């Protein structure tokens, strides 16, 4: 599933091609993905202009000129493209938004777990109400050790599950949670309530560093993820523990292990993360 770095790269690519383009027509070829696509046909998008692209967690918001936002989430296999109308429609492209420059914004999803919805925007950050429960961004000053100590107080939740909770911090998924905890030297099943200020600071600093590197590398191409231009992210080549079961730890040489936490695979080094 695309995580924060992947969403950030998709947003940066769309920011280069969508703002200033006016919507001329909307075509919906499938009734639903994660939610119904039918409202897009009657949302009155024709004649509206894209103004900006913003990211919140793993979501993107495309601001349009009437004050609403087009909300996107890429599920397990969502791909967006902006291509000439002459390019034939692919089998799993479910929505075409025609643009004033003759190109088409295309939304594809093989597994149909993506989301494309039109929303009113509210509050000082002009966000859809649907995102109101999301926690702070990993790069936000509100994501700090005092905040995490308070949120983790009394919670036996494994620390990996805890930092993947979008109500705690938004955008850290399975790949980057595994990599962050390895870099911090913290076992994924440690109860969140047992971590010290120093350990939370290690998690924060390593999460930010790893996410920045992943953004710079175009994300991690795991499973079906592709960037807007069809390219694959290169950060997968830098992964130390995620997907490395049975391979030697790059630090100590012990074999990487995998266990299930919160229904997800957790990769770790039994020596470096005791």
Description:
With 274 residues, the protein is an alpha+beta fold. It is built from five helices and ten strands, in the order H-E-E-E-E-E-E-E-E-H-H-H-H-E-E. It has helices at 4-17, 145-152, 159-163, 174-184, 197-216, and strands spanning 23-28, 50-56, 59-64, 68-73, 78-84, 93-99, 103-109, 115-120, 257-261, 264-268. The strands form three sheets. It has a four-stranded antiparallel sheet, covered by helices on one side. It has a four-stranded antiparallel sheet with strand order 2-3-4-8, covered by helices on one side. A hairpin with a 2-residue loop joins strand 9 (257-261) and strand 10 (264-268). Helix 1 packs parallel to helix 5 (197-216), helix 2 crosses helix 5 (197-216) and helix 4 (174-184) crosses helix 5 (197-216). It is elongated. It starts with a helix and ends in a 6-residue tail after the last strand.
Features:
274 residues; alpha+beta; four-stranded antiparallel β-sheet; 5 helices; 21% helix
């Amino acid at each position: 599933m695309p995580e924060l770095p992947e969403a950030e790269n998709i947003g940066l690519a769309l920011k280069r091609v969508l703002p200033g383009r006016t919507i001329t027509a909307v075509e919906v070829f499938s009734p639903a993905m994660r939610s119904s696509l039918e409202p897009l046909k009657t949302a009155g998008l024709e004649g509206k202009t894209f103004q900006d692209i913003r990211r919140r967690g793993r979501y993107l918001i495309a601001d349009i000129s009437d004050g609403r936002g087009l909300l996107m989430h890429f599920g397990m296999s969502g791909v967006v493209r902006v291509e000439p109308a002459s390019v034939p429609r692919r089998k799993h492209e479910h929505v075409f938004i025609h643009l004033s420059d003759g190109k088409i914004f295309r939304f594809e999803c093989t597994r149909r777990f993506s989301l494309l919805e039109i929303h009113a925007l509210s509050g000082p950050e002009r966000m859809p109400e649907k995102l109101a429960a999301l926690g702070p961004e990993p790069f936000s000053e509100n994501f700090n050790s005092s905040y995490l100590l308070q949120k983790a107080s009394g919670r036996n939740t494994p620390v990996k599950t805890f930092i993947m909770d979008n109500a705690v911090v938004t955008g850290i998924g399975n790949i980057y949670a595994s990599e962050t905890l390895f870099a911090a030297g913290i076992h994924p099943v440690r109860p969140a309530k047992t971590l010290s200020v120093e350990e939370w600071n290690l998690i924060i600093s390593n999460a930010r560093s790893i996410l920045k590197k992943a953004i710079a590398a175009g994300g991690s191409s795991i499973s079906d993820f592709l960037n807007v231009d069809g390219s694959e992210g290169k950060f997968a080549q830098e992964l130390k523990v995620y997907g490395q079961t049975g391979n030697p730890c790059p630090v100590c040489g012990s074999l990487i292990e995998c266990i299930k936490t919160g229904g997800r695979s957790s990769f770790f080094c039994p020596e470096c993360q005791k």
